[in-house]
Amino acid sequence: MKNLECTEFLQYCLPRLRFRWAGFRKVHEQVCNRLIRRINEIGLSGFSSYKAYLDDHPEEWRIFDSMFQITISRFYRDRGVFEVLSSKILPSIARNILSSGGNALNCWSAGCCSGEEAYTLQILWKVRVVPAIHQDIPLRITATDINPDVLKRAREGCYSGSSLRDLPKELIQQAFQMTGKFYSVRKPFTEGIDFREQDIRVQLPEGIFHLILCRNLVLTYFEEALQREIVDRIVEKLSHGGIFVIGIHESLPKGAANIIQYDNIPGIFRKVD
Questions:
Q1: Which residue, 119, 223, 212, 215, is CA-closest to 174?
Q2: Which CATH topology does 79-271 take?
Q3: How far apart are CA 130 and CA 125, in angstroms?
């Protein structure tokens, strides 16, 4: 089964799932390998026969859809984003919450994968932000992903050293303990994080959030019309003045309303009404 045959198959099928080929171009070999294993597993001869199989077995589309879940993640990914969040944005949001009589900062990590983003936020909150604002208010994080396997790893909070390669050493020392050859998140930094299985295409968590991170998911892999639909729903979930973070190499779809770029920083936006 040649690469070209798989590419043509993907370009035919991706629109049916409201995905876009451009988002999968760099990772299509990973998807192709999964597809080849599935084709062999059900005893088919190739992509053309699998195409017919999909037409005859509608239930197969659910399995087919699962093969497009890309699980690339690590702690402190895009260092500059987390530096701005911990030094400026989170302290500012926290002070506004306190001055208005609130008692917690609510965050949503969408497409949380194995939990690295959510744990990074909680570590920065406890180690840097709380001492800076001199108020110990909780950071409550709702972390969602479609993949139950990565969510299981997230709840376990145990990682290889390569996952932590971008995280500053002082944060590793404070927030992790060694478990054999692996790094386990210390209990204080696991508190306040709720990992949930959700498909962002059809479901968003309840509530309003002061901070929402949706990086390298919707705006990378989904078709533009679906991007607009989901971004509009995400913005509705933001509090007034709330912060929306996307991937530093991503762009908002045309027509995204009620958000403006935050201090000209790539990938960070603020809600305005």
A1: 119
A2: Rossmann fold (3.40.50)
A3: 6
Q: What is the pLDDT of residue 205?
A: 98
Instruction: Collect all residues with Cβ–Cβ distance below 8 Å to 92 and sequence separation of at least 6.
Output: none
Whether residue 89 contacts residue 265, with contact meaning beta carbons closer than 8 Å, is answered with no
In whole angstroms, what is the distance from residue 54 CA to residue 14 CA? 13
Distance CA 192, CA 173 (A): 20
Domain boundaries, the chain: 3-66, 79-271
CA distances (Å), 126 to each of 42, 86, 90, 120, 137, in order?
Answer: 49, 10, 11, 10, 10
Angle in degrees, CA 249, 94, 200, rounded to 5 = 45
Q: How far apart, in whole angstroms, are the C-alpha atoms of residue 28 and residue 22?
A: 10
CA distance 142 to 19: 25
In this prediction, residues 254-266 reach a mean pLDDT of 92
Which residues fall within 8 angstroms of residue 213, CB to CB, at 6 or more apart? 107, 108, 109, 110, 117, 121, 245
pTM of the model: 0.94
Name the H helices within 67-146. 79-84, 90-99, 116-124, 130-133
Neighbour-count burial for 71-92, b at 16+ CB within 10 Å, e otherwise:
eebbbbbbeebbebbbeebbbe
Tell me the per-residue pLDDT of 185-194, one tens digit each, with 9 for 90 and over.
Answer: 999 999 999 9
Sequence-distant (6+) residues with CB within 8 A of 237 are 108, 204, 205, 207, 208, 209, 212
The burial of 159, by beta-carbon neighbours within 10 Å (0-12 exposed, 13-18 middle, 19 or more buried), is given as buried
pLDDT of residue 244: 98
